Amino acid sequence: MEEANKRINQILAMDEEDYTDEIIEEFVQELKGAKFLIPMEVDEESIDLDSLGEDEEIELGDDVEFAIIKMEDEDGNEFIPVFTGDFETEIDLPGTGLVMDAEDLALLLFDEELDNEKMDSIYINPFTDYPAEMGFYNYLELFDLIEIEEVECDDPDCDDPSHLH
């Protein structure tokens, strides 16, 4: 997984003042092909995780019950933590880590059965030295699942992610 995300991790390790428009565009393109380690709660009665090999793939179909772990920041904003490598985190994360393609995650999150009404962002490598945050709807738009109509806004109290501030 880390090899697939090598360039993403290199960009995240850069100083922010070194980010150019080209680097940001490269990051976005690399993100589309990323593989994420995602903390999930998996019903152990629906699949025997202990019998799986380290690199063995499973299908998350109708017969496997799982829930993506959602977290909340100090301001009450909900986010989904995802990781681009085997990083040490500042906290112990709950659940089981499953590897998923970034696009598959977007398709899964687009599923209206998941309660994403209050979701604010996808947080890449939270609680590590190299975090990045992407708005939830911007993440879905990255994979052409939705189209965000951006609106100019000068309201300092506005928290609508589709408004340009």
Descriptive report:
Helix content is 21%, strand content 23%. It has helices at residues 6-12, 21-32, 102-110, 136-142; strands at 35-42, 66-68, 71-72, 78-82, 96-101, 119-124, 132-135, 151-152, 163-164. The protein has one domain (6-164). The chain is globular. It has a four-stranded mixed sheet. The longest helix is centred in the N-terminal third of the chain and has 12 residues, at 21-32. It has 165 residues and is of the alpha/beta class.
Could you write a compact summary of the structure shown?
The protein has 165 residues and is α/β, with parallel strands linked by helices. The protein is built from four helices and nine strands, in the order H-H-E-E-E-E-E-H-E-E-H-E-E. 16% of the residues are buried.
List keywords for this structure.
165 residues; alpha/beta; 4-stranded mixed β-sheet; 9 strands
Percent in helix: 10-25%
Average predicted confidence as pLDDT: 82
What multimeric state do the chains show? single chain
Radius of gyration: 17 Å
| Poorly predicted runs | none
Would you count the extended β strands for me?
Answer: 9
In N-to-C order, the SSE pattern is HHEEEEEHEEHEE
Can you list the strand order of the major beta sheet?
3-4-6-7
